[in-house]
Design a protein that fits this description.
By secondary structure, the protein is mainly alpha-helical. It has six helices and two strands. It has a two-stranded antiparallel ribbon. A hairpin with a 4-residue loop joins strand 1 and strand 2. Helix 1 packs antiparallel against helix 4, helix 2 packs antiparallel against helix 3 and helix 2 packs parallel to helix 4. The longest helix is centred in the C-terminal third of the chain and has 30 residues. The chain is globular, with a radius of gyration of 18 Å.
Length: 192
């Protein structure tokens, strides 16, 4: 199970998001399910924290599967010491956001809680990916719920903020994709 911890931390909230989106749950139960998934996610992170060997600087809890061997593209995730803390910060803060939103009663709860859970999985993927194209995919996946969360549940001036967010991230994402492709083709692999 140790090698699966990183993958579980990525895809558990994504599976929870799909369940929240697809199950016709009332407001209270959608929030309850999202809060439960968030707390289980914290439990898996605590398990990873307890098993992590901070004396070993190597990548731990890694999992790798080659997708396109000719291009050097793979599903490669794992955690270094700093990654464990970034993942922990993500899952704890996201769980706090979900529990608070459940407590105050957010409008459109299934959409909100699903987006928050999907965002959690994408951020954990960003912090644990060891392949540049996989990192890029998780980074772009992270932006999608942020666009919607800002545009729908943001405060005053949320539409202007969403437009600026889209413009800045599209320009930055295209530059990042171009540099990743050039680096990967020169190095012969996208794996870090």
């Amino acid at each position: 199970m140790d090698s699966w911890l990183t993958t579980i931390l990525i895809f558990l909230p994504v599976a929870g998001a799909l369940l929240v989106w697809l199950a016709p749950l009332p407001r209270y139960w959608a929030g309850s399910l999202a809060a439960l998934v968030s707390l289980v996610e914290i439990g898996f992170w605590i398990s990873a924290l307890q098993q992590f060997d901070f004396g070993d600087p190597a990548l731990q809890f890694d999992q790798q599967a080659t997708w396109f061997p000719d291009l050097g593209v793979s599903y490669h995730v794992g955690m270094y010491a700093f990654s464990v803390w970034l993942v922990g910060l993500t899952v704890v803060v996201q769980a706090a956001c979900i529990v608070y939103a459940w407590w105050v009663g957010r409008a459109r709860p299934r959409a909100y809680f699903g987006l928050q859970l999907f965002l959690t999985g994408a951020i954990v993927g960003v912090f644990t990916s060891q392949d540049l194209l996989l990192f890029y995919a998780f980074f772009e996946a992270m932006l999608i719920p942020l666009y919607v969360l800002i545009g729908v549940w943001g405060g005053a001036g949320r539409m202007l903020a969403t437009i600026k967010f889209v413009v800045y991230t599209v320009v930055g994402s295209l530059l990042m994709l171009a540099s990743i492709v050039v680096y990967g083709l020169q190095a012969g692999t996208f794996d870090l």
